[in-house]
Amino acid sequence: MYSWENPDDRVAIVQMNSELRHAQLELLSAHCASHQLRLRFSADDLARFGQRDILRKSVQAASALSEYYSSIEKKIPEAEASSTPRTQLTEPQITVAVARVSAYLQEQRERYFYSASPLSPRQNAVMSPYFSAALLEQARVVELIGSRLPNPPFYAEAVEFGFINLPQIAHMASVTFLDVIVFNEKITERSLFHALVHAAQFEVLGLERYVNLFVRSFVNTKFHFSVPLEAHAFSLESRFVGHPADRFSVEDQVRLWIKNGRY
After folding, report:
1. Contacts of 205 (CB under 8 A, 6+ apart)
2. Contact assessment for residue 179 and residue 199, using Cβ atoms and an 8 Å cutoff
3. How far is it, in rounded angstroms, from Cα 204 to Cα 50?
4. pLDDT tens per residue across span 13-37
5. 91-148 pLDDT, tens digit each
6. Inter-residue contact 251 to 200 (CB < 8 Å)
7. What helix, strand, coil percent values describe the chain, rounded to 5?
8. How far is CA 211 from CA 4, 81, 94, 133, 194, in A?
9. Which of these ranges, 7-11, 106-110, 170-174, 189-193, has the smallest mean pLDDT?
10. Among candidates 215, 243, 244, which has minimal Cα distance to 230?
11. Separation of alpha carbons 188 and 176, rounded Å
12. For residue 77, how many other CB atoms are within 10 A of its CB?
């Protein structure tokens, strides 16, 4: 069983939630397709005239999924009962938290900007099908050697408020400070893509709105990987790695999630 206290398990938990979100989107698509069938054709007509092998496979898949998710549903009350009690912040406290996180991101951006480098021609070529030329031209990267980013100074106070599942910055592959990305580890195409997704989110949302959405979601969910901004980055990263021939605009995907109120 995974534990959030184990750094290795945290990576697996984040990946699990990314795949869960992807599965949920696929299930929604299947639900919409089935709903269209239900609107146009009766169950009797489908049973009488539907292609038998497709019907049987569809019924088997739906039954298996129903059984699987029902077994999970039965365990949810037990998991919720053993989880950490929900910590709440007042609206003024959230406002202060947003201001502190915003200031931290801006300060770190200024700190690393002059030692950061533009993307290499190779990195630019790999990322250009997914990000605008303007974003890639503006982005700067720093690869730390012999050191890792420390946690922000406001973490100690956050822990006192009961937030014990704060993301450990030193254990993260990178942190995106607006358009400056600082890597704790060697830059890979996968880690660069993920970090640039956050740069695109900053670009489209703006610093204040991004932080406001992130803080409020973290206060509600208590887990970094459950914040929609982060979950979306992992979802797009999975799409980038798993379907290399599938070219898409990250900025358009961010705008779509904003339009649909998913952040």
Report:
1. 213, 254, 258, 263
2. yes
3. 46
4. 777 877 886 787 687 678 767 877 8
5. 999 999 999 999 999 999 999 999 999 999 999 999 999 999 999 999 999 999 999 9
6. yes
7. 65, 5, 25
8. 23, 30, 11, 25, 18
9. 7-11
10. 215
11. 15
12. 9
Report yes or no: 211 and 230 within 8 Å, Cβ to Cβ: no
pTM of the model: 0.70
Q: Which residues pair with 176 in a beta bridge?
A: 181
Find where tokens 């534990």 sit.
3
User: pLDDT at position 153, please?
Assistant: 92
Provide φ and ψ at 141, rounded to 5°: -130, 150
The residues, any chain, with a CB within 8 Å of residue 262's CB and separated by 6 or more, are 228, 232
pLDDT at 82: 56
Residue 4 is encoded by which pair of tokens? 């959030």
5: number of Cβ within 10 Å: 9
Helix or strand (DSSP H, E) at 106: helix 91-113
3-state SS, 157-207, equals HHHHCCCCCCCCHHHCCEEEECCEEEECCCCCHHHHHHHHHHHHHHHHHCH
